Amino acid sequence: MQIGAKLRAAAARIPLSRSVARAARFYADTRANVAMIFGISLIPLTLAAGTGLDYSRAMLVHAQLITALDAAGLAVGASPGLSLTQQQTLAQQYFNANYMLDNSSYGTPTAVSVTANSQQVTVSTSDPMPTTLMQIAGFTTLRSLHLPQSCGARKSFGFRLCSIIRAR
After folding, report:
1. Counting Cβ atoms within 10 Å, is residue 56 exposed (0-12), middle (13-18) or buried (19+)?
2. CA-CA distance, 35 to 59, in Å (whole number)?
3. FRET label pair with 63: which of 5, 35, 39, 48, CA 20 to 30 Å apart?
């Protein structure tokens, strides 16, 4: 005897409320299982697609941050004799000129910070990027982009030659 038939027989013998009887019939019914399975699996599939979409957006932001920081670090490293405030201003100008993403949908990067000594200049920033579909699961920003992305420019051989040193 199948489980559905046993439940129907048990429901017929015991005086149950209508809602409990409907729940028993629903549990015993084997029709349209594909629709239920599809409906249940739609949630993790949507979250997986959202994770992929937000991760690809994060990699786009990461590449733009690195490119803009490289330009800012090279500009500051190739400009000797600047005060820290002037280095900060120059780095921010170069970063803004080279960061090509829309701030409203990809997040707004923090101000570029500059650390310099006689041989090395390090610039860094971060971007708390808002998510799109991962907001369904409660993730409003991606944490990986809160970490500072750094680029350093090192002066070599007494020339205005700069090489990029990337810290992760």
Report:
1. exposed
2. 36
3. 48
Residue 157 tokens read as 């051989």
| 168 has pLDDT over 60 | no
Q: What is the pLDDT of residue 98?
A: 92
Cα(168)–Cα(156) distance, integer angstroms = 22
pLDDT at 50 over 80: yes
Q: How far is residue 99's CA from residue 70's CA, in Å, rounded to a whole number?
A: 11
Distance, in Å, from the CA atom of 152 to the CA atom of 158, rounded to the nearest integer, reads 17
Give dist(CA 150, CA 167) in Å, integer: 6
Q: Please, which residues have CB within 8 angstroms of residue 122's CB and are 6 or more apart in sequence?
A: 73, 114, 115, 116, 150, 151, 152, 167
- Could you count the other beta carbons within 10 Å of the beta carbon of residue 128? 14
Three-state secondary structure string covering 74-114: HHHHCCCCCCHHHHHHHHHHHHHHHCCCCHHHHCCCCCCEE
- Which pLDDT score, from 0 to 100, does residue 147 have? 43
Which three-class secondary structure state does DSSP give residue 142? coil
